[in-house]
Design a protein that fits this description.
The protein is mainly beta and 120 residues long. The protein is built from no helices and eleven strands. The protein is elongated and about 50 Å long.
């Protein structure tokens, strides 16, 4: 099994910055894709950014140029640097990975979520 633990959420003013971290632990063989999703009240959970094992990244259009995803495979950790935050970025942010644990088939894993609130 793989456990994902997020940190770094909180309250920030518009234009401010936050850095989210997500550490994967457990019987990890390999984390292939790691990424961040977000879910605002009354809306579906959507992809924000993802990064592959080879370092290829993908961002939703609304965060391009403001958010940066990175990963440290030695620490099994993925980061999301969020700059120039807007009120519409307010949501619960979920860490995600598609990973292989032990002899089990690769599967999706989710963190418990961390709240990001952008408000003055």
């Amino acid at each position: 099994q793989v456990q994902l633990v997020e940190s770094g959420g909180g309250l920030v003013q518009p234009g401010g910055s936050l850095r989210l971290s997500c550490a994967a632990s457990g019987s990890i063989f390999r984390t292939y894709v790691m990424g961040w999703y977000r879910q605002a009240p009354g809306k579906q959970r959507d992809l924000v950014a993802a990064i592959t094992l080879s370092g290829n990244t993908n961002y939703v259009d609304s965060v391009k140029g403001r958010f940066t995803i990175s990963r440290d495979d030695a620490k099994n950790t993925v980061y999301l640097q969020m700059n120039s935050l807007k009120a519409e970025d307010t949501a619960v942010y979920y860490c995600h990975t598609f990973a292989k644990s032990g002899d089990s088939p690769s599967r999706h894993y989710w963190g418990q979520g961390t709240q990001v609130t952008v408000s003055s």
